Amino acid sequence: MRQAVILQHGPSTGVHGQLANQLWNFISVYAYAKERGIPVSNYSFFEYSRHFSIPVGSPLVSLIFFKPFNLLAAFIPERILVPLWRKLYKAFVLVVGTLAPQSVVRSGNAGYVDAPYYLPPSPDVRQEFLSKENTTLGALYFDGWLFRNPAGIEKHRESIREYFSPKKNAAENIRRFLSPLRAKYRHVIGVHIRQGDYRTWKGGRYFVPQERVREIIDDYVTFAGIDIEDTCFVIASDGPIDVAHFSGLHTAISEAGAIEDLFLLAQTDAIIGSDSSFGDFSAYYGNIPHIVLENESVDWEYYRGKARYFENKYCTLVHY
After folding, report:
1. Strand 117-118 to strand 147-148: parallel, antiparallel, or no bridges (unpaired)?
2. Closest CA to 283 of 151, 157, 155
3. Would you report the helix, strand and coil content of the chain in percent, each value rounded to 5?
4. Structure confidence at residue 115 (pLDDT)
5. pLDDT of residue 11
6. Stretch (H or E) spanning 6
7. Phi then psi dihedrals of residue 300, to 5 deg
8. Alpha carbon distances (Å) from 48 to 42, 51, 70
9. What's the pTM?
């Protein structure tokens, strides 16, 4: 039976394999499968599957990789388990690539080429893909992290929102966090501050310190013409927040972790956040604007009139 299978979301190690990068890849292949009316599976999603209700698609892959991983994750730190499991899974990828090379589509990740590989119904689809699609009778395996489908994820937005919604406990936690804020404030603005690896990755190029974040928030208040007494800023980060930098503002600090933060930010009115695929996925999911944090001056005129999600030229790490 014809189906779309994500065989590998990126290299065995590295930034390409983290949550939001996996999701950008996943929703793009999902939109392609939706367009073609075929099933979709992601065999490489074992790290995050327990947070979603997405079917694996293969009982054998589920038995070998997903169920044992979820069991071991309760006892072994993920910083140890994930690299080990990716190495084991790499052997499976090698087997599939050896047995069915004609069914594998590679986006170019082996050479770390940051060039999107577009899928239907988006334009600029490569002829090699269309040829492989027409000659493959069974599963079409997607290997790489840069499959993109901008037209597809817009066309199938509502289906994507439903398919990729978090499990009920996470949704309920988000509701409990946001409900009192929505009842008290007219505006709830998300703030995503990437710290952690951003302090050193690529020489700290994408790291924006919290004192600079505060300056941008103040500028946003003026730009948007909102009253700070009527506004709460929901701050999510992978590092500690120094509340002194945000004195004079109504703030709510999320300590829920990456999965809930991803969908929590999506339920705010707008996101002021780091140049990252994480904040931009939240903006896509919530159909809200993403104002990218900059160490240099923010191009506020660029954001004027943008009230919904859009492909932000200042968000360089999504690779639309």
Report:
1. parallel
2. 157
3. 50, 15, 35
4. 85
5. 55
6. strand 3-8
7. -65, -35
8. 11, 6, 9
9. 0.95
User: Of the candidates 292, 2, 266, 28, which has an alpha carbon nearest to the alpha carbon of residue 134?
Assistant: 2
pLDDT above 70 for 130:
yes
DSSP 296: S
CB within 8 Å of 310: residues ≥ 6 apart = 289
For 97, the token pair is 């690539």
Across the chain, mean pLDDT equals 93
Cis peptide before 116 (omega within 30 of 0): no
Kindly state the tokens that stand for 231.
Answer: 């506004």
In whole angstroms, what is the distance from residue 245 CA to residue 205 CA? Answer: 21
Q: How far apart are CA 88 and CA 144, in angstroms?
A: 17
Q: Which CATH class is domain 169-303?
A: alpha beta
Domain range summary for the chain, segments of one domain joined by +: 3-163, 169-303
Coil, strand, or helix at residue 255?
Answer: coil
- Cβ contacts of 264 within 8 Å, gap of 6 or more: 174, 177, 178, 190, 234, 236, 254, 256
Per-residue model confidence as pLDDT tens digits over 280-310: 999 999 999 999 999 999 999 999 999 999 9
Tokens standing for residue 71: 């069991």
Distance CA 141, CA 5 (A): 5
pLDDT at residue number 286? 98
Pairwise CA distance, residues 18 & 278, whole Å: 9
